Amino acid sequence: MNKLDKATNSSRSEVMRIGYALLFMVGIILYIGSHIEGVDGGFILVVAAVVGGYMAINIGANDVANNVGPAVGSKAITLTGAIIIAAIFEAAGALIAGGDVVSTIKKGIINPSAIGDAETFIWLMLAALLAGALWLNLATYVGAPVSTTHSIVGGVLGAGIAAGGWGIANWDQMGAIAASWVISPVLGGLIAAGFLYLIKRTITYKKDMRIAAKKMVPFLIFLMAWAFSTYLALKGVKQLIKLDFVSALGIGFAIALVIYFVIKGLVAKAADRLDNDKSGVNKLFTIPLIFAAALLSFAHGANDVANAVGPLAAINDSILNHGVSTKASIPLWVMMVGALGIALGLALFGPKLIKTVGSEITELDQTRAFSIAMAAAITVIIASQLGLPVSSTHIAVGGVFGVGFLREYLKSSHARMMDEIKSHHQGADQEEVEQFLADFENATIEEKGAMLKQLKKKTASAELSKKERKQLKKAYKQELVKRSAVYKIAAAWIITVPASGSLAAILFFVIRGVMV
Predict the structure, then answer these.
(1) Residues 404 and 421 in one domain
(2) Fewer CB under 10 Å: which end of the chain, C or N?
(3) What is the 3 state secondary structure string of 375-406?
(4) Global pTM?
(5) If 0-12 CB within 10 Å is exposed, 13-18 middle and 19+ buried, where does residue 424 land?
(6) Residue 139 contacts residue 500 (beta carbons within 8 Å)
């Protein structure tokens, strides 16, 4: 009986989660139904509001994992704590800084003037919203973090082509979005790997890590505060106040400078109480990671709530004004649907993707998670100034890949050096070999380089063939990034726009057939 009870626990839990999501949608129906009396097309608005709520739940379930996954995976914060922080800051970002006007045609990917009438536009938006939500739901089910922006872009593109033909699409813009599939993860991965290598060179590879940490950690937190303040000024509060890049950079620098002088002494005191090892250094990054998760969630809520409520706001505007507009106002009830849906989706279905990003791709600690958070903020800043369309999901997951592949490279390099040392000491006394290895392990990077050079001078190395070098490289290689996760996520990224687009086109014809 106990075994049967345990076996049914997961299914009961799943039914409960679905039940809470359905209650949210029933609440939307009751609220909208009581406020649309006498409105022509009120039924469509109720359906659109329910689909918008469903989309918001799926954004919370899939996309928010990128903001808190690394912090949870590194054990800087518990899963429950991460969900609470992210839910609060996602909703706050949506309600405080989500804006009151949204572009109805996301990213300008289709030409609204090619859409004949308001009815067709409403069906198009409804099909796009439902297709994006269904694709996100499927991606969450299989454990693949995908871009919600790309999901809704694909939906609008597919439904737009179904409504107005191939000429309705802005193919130049679609080309830029396709380029972001490569740009986002590569840029995120390189920046994350760069920061992790900087931390290793300046702190964890030093003999006295505590002294190194006292010097470097305040500077790293200064960089983090500068990057995140600039990021929030440019992206998080752009609906409240418009700032140019130089102004945002200046404000961010001033905030970061204040934070640097406040935390410098605190870091020094904390470092004195820690062990002189990697785990001790990692503890210094715990609080910055919690702040990073909160700020990334706030900015995400402010930016990505439009993916859930943009089409809904467009449908609402078209029903009330009987026309097609490129900009639509966002009523408070529409923003509440987005904010509450994202928070609910995160709480009910978010843990699966949080675990995927945080622990199932590669092993993370606090310094690695810090590097990923830095990559998330800096990549968005760089891309926005270069006019590159990037995905926060692709950046964060690319950052996870970046630190994982860097670790693989460093591990294989270390194994190669150990083997080289042993080969140069062949025939030597065992104690001599062990002493040299111990000295090598405790040496700084510069000292290690000098020791290896001396060994090479003493013993001439034999020339290896290309085949032998490949075999050696394979022998030293350690896979610290789960390859199956890499292939699954990459495949999901590539097919997101075509899949949501195809689904949207089918749904548009179904909706039009039913309504006509």
Answers:
(1) no
(2) N
(3) HHHHHHHHHHHHCCCCCHHHHHHHHHHHHHHH
(4) 0.82
(5) middle
(6) no
